[in-house]
Amino acid sequence: MNKEEILSIITDSSVGISKQKILLSDMNTADIAEIFEDLESEKIIRLFRILPKAIASDVFVCMDSDHQQLIIEALSNVEIGEIMNNLFIDDAVDFIEEMPANVVKRALKNVESEKRKIINRILRYPDDSAGSIMTTEFVDLQENATVREAFTTIRRTGLDKETIYNCYVIRSDRLLLGTVSAKTLMLARPKERIGDIMDTNVVFAHTTDDREAIADQFQKYDFLAMPVVDNEQRLVGIITVDDIVDVIVEEHTEDVERMAAIVPSDDPYLKTSIFQHARNRFLWMLILMLSATITGTIISSFENGLMVLPILMSFIPMLMNTGGIAGSQASTLIVRGIAVGEISLGDVLVIIWKELRVAMLCGLGLGLVNFIRVFVMNNKDVLLCITITLSLFCTIIMAKTVGGILPILAKRLKIDPAIMSAPLLTTIVDAVSLIIYFSIAKVILGL
Amino acid sequence: MNKEEILSIITDSSVGISKQKILLSDMNTADIAEIFEDLESEKIIRLFRILPKAIASDVFVCMDSDHQQLIIEALSNVEIGEIMNNLFIDDAVDFIEEMPANVVKRALKNVESEKRKIINRILRYPDDSAGSIMTTEFVDLQENATVREAFTTIRRTGLDKETIYNCYVIRSDRLLLGTVSAKTLMLARPKERIGDIMDTNVVFAHTTDDREAIADQFQKYDFLAMPVVDNEQRLVGIITVDDIVDVIVEEHTEDVERMAAIVPSDDPYLKTSIFQHARNRFLWMLILMLSATITGTIISSFENGLMVLPILMSFIPMLMNTGGIAGSQASTLIVRGIAVGEISLGDVLVIIWKELRVAMLCGLGLGLVNFIRVFVMNNKDVLLCITITLSLFCTIIMAKTVGGILPILAKRLKIDPAIMSAPLLTTIVDAVSLIIYFSIAKVILGL
Q1: What residues in B contact A320, CB-CB < 8 Å?
Q2: Residue from A274, A291, A315, A177 nearest A234 by CA
Q3: Which residues of chain B neighbour A292 with C-beta distances below 8 Å?
Q4: Dihedrals φ, ψ of A78, to 5°?
Q5: What pLDDT does residue B421 have?
Q6: Model-level pTM?
């Protein structure tokens, strides 16, 4: 059944509720959420109410925050309580973080007090920390239990856990001793002791660890889940791979935005107000605009030369743009190499040597094309051709080297390398390329 | 034990092999690979040989391709066969894809013939397809089996499967009927029929589907694995979330490279030859350099005006750079919005309206600062101030609108939006901002 058929059945008031209910119960919750988001408000509320309780919370989690708010505002306190109590802690925290104060208040008021305490504790972890993305619903086992007993525990409590595929072995004081995967349990004999089959070589995170570093560990070890401990090594939660996928995508967006000289924001483009958009972009535009004063001053200082040979002006954008792209190509590759852990601080000399040679190759090729173009378009003026081509060649060498060094330098100064690539690089490359150009023009053309 | 301690033990020839073996057996395979990669070639080979067979292949998978080649070239045919036969199909394919022909030949010669056939089949799928990242080691169950029988199947075959947490129910002709998660199995009663508890609402991929679209599905549904079927809906493989994490990171790198006007490449920066680097970057540099001929022509055409008032030249880089960043901020946000599925083709008017207003806000702020700066630095020449400020304002409006529209246009023309953002945007913004500048200067300053 395709989306249109489903829509026509669930929005047709002549179709009985029970038929609609059966149809929805058979669907994937992410698909239900997607379909609901296309409907009018009152239809969403009506259909949300006929969802079986077991799947209502799952659908709720998949909806965007505007629709979540719409639903919470329409439901009774009892209904809100049912949804909140069925949410996993990490999903509840994600939801709460996006809501305005009055909705948060109402949602938390109707949740069980034990769960409310946990939610409040997780809300206090910094935004980018392991603690903020963990969930507290995991399966814990005792060292002395047998495999058979472990299965009993899982069968009894498993439905309410975010994953049952990684179980955690803890002492009575919650100290983390080891992990057992469901695979190990299923392949083990029923009488074996958990303590004998558990993996004690556990890779774990601390609540305050950076979530990007955790994502790297998931990538390295191919984890499905990872335990999170507090300062006393007591198990407080787990992070699951589905949340890590979201972290990776969010961190990428931040990187891309920083590289384009935008202050990163969590909100989607269409949902960000124009004032917020302007605020996220203004600062770097301002810095770039003001730093262009340097370039302006350099041009003014060569005014006399330009007055003698005005054609020289027309090559300025070509030099600056080619230099700009040469530099940003290099810096982008280095920033990305640092982000994926391929390039480290020690590689700076290797990078410079590599960029120098790449720049020579590119510079020779572009220089040749440029020479021919200038020669043909400017009355076969050989001295002019040499001036422009030599400037271009030196600009490319300079831009690629600076572009290669800046991100490493930023990393060493503990600044995000992505920030360096756009504004600072542009300013340096523009200024230096003009100085190169005018110096060469002075010597060769005798201005 | 930290990395240095481990290194000192495994490289110390006075320590017995059995002790080294025990130490390594206790470690995570990804960590062993990381430590091996820091050693000299002969030590790697020696230590690799003392690894228990069960973990040698896992360590091999975690190593980079240079070290994999080193090991394969040092091992005997029998040893190669053992490793190859223990690799999961998807890992074997990844490894084969990176090796030179002679290594591929030797590796495939020593693998079981059945496995060799499957590897060869998967190697034929296009690089970006679902088929190329799937594995064929999954648990399949019969509809009529009971839960108890399913567990027996899993216990018997599970060790060799990439995941046992998603099992696939197929007919005797391999047609995919449904899926059962290990969670469902563990929570079910032993006598229940698989056909009664399986989920028949299966989201699956075709072998030829784009891997980026598959990654979106994993994100939407929080999958751990997804079945892949052929044209006749027969189950041929599964894709697991660990490979999807790699796909997301790789696709992101490609996007970033395209945005920076680089032809994307799979190879890491440090391992790419300078010729390859130059080739990946040359084309877009050339296009940008040549397109700057347009800008040059526009400047030349206004030469007389510039000769009268040479100070006008010094503002060209400021206008072009501020316009450039204004445009790239907008296009980056739209490209990213399209990539994460937040922005669709229908949003073009919303985007234009949004960018226009954001541009006005930024333009007003920057215009004010610019007015003051030019006023102070240029002898309080009000007409000059108005000319520059008005040009800046119009340039920002134009740049943000063009930056907002171009990626959508690219998407509509089925070109990758990321490609549009750097070269074409720069060319358009540079040319139009100069035309705006010179037109305004003509009117206000009467040049």
Answers
A1: 317, 320
A2: A177
A3: 317-318, 321-322
A4: -65, -45
A5: 66
A6: 0.86
